[in-house]
Each structure stands twice: as C-alpha cells, then as structure tokens.
Amino acid sequence: MLKIRVQGLPEEVAEFSDALEAAGCVLERSEPYANRGGSRYVRVYIDAQKPAADGGAREIEEG
C-alpha cells in the first residue's frame, strides 16, 4: 500500500484524485484540507495500491 499526499489547486486535486479512483487504485481518500497561511492550495491524503490486470485493486504480497 502507498500513502500519497496530493497537493494543488482544489480543481486539480479533485481531478487527479478522481482519476486514481477511476483506475481502481484508491483504498481510502480524505476530504480536502486547506493549506495554512491563506494559501489557495488544498491537500488530499490517499491510501492506494497498484491495480490488478483486470482493473481492480489487488493485494501486494510481501516477502
């Protein structure tokens, strides 16, 4: 599993995060958090894993 932080303008973050979900990679996705200091940027935290060949998420074996 990978933990990813996506940061950028709200529209860009939503578009990218939606694309990851459509690819079947996303296990969990946070709500957007506003960056500090009056920034226009937001961040989203995503738990993801590599999609299987059939397009669904697959467990990554350790070892």
Overview of the structural elements:
The protein is of the alpha+beta class and 63 residues long. Helices cover 21% and strands 32% of the residues. It has one helix and four strands; from the N terminus they run E-H-E-E-E. It has one helix spanning 10-22; strands at residues 2-8, 26-29, 33-34, 42-48. Strands 1, 2, 3 and 4 form a four-stranded antiparallel beta sheet that branches. The longest helix has 13 residues, at 10-22. The chain is elongated. It starts with a strand and ends in a 15-residue tail after the last strand.
Helix and strand arrangement:
Layout: E1 2-8, H1 10-22, E2 26-29, E3 33-34, E4 42-48
Antiparallel strand pairs: 1-4, 2-4, 3-4
Main traits of this protein?
single chain, 63 residues, alpha+beta, four-stranded antiparallel beta sheet, elongated
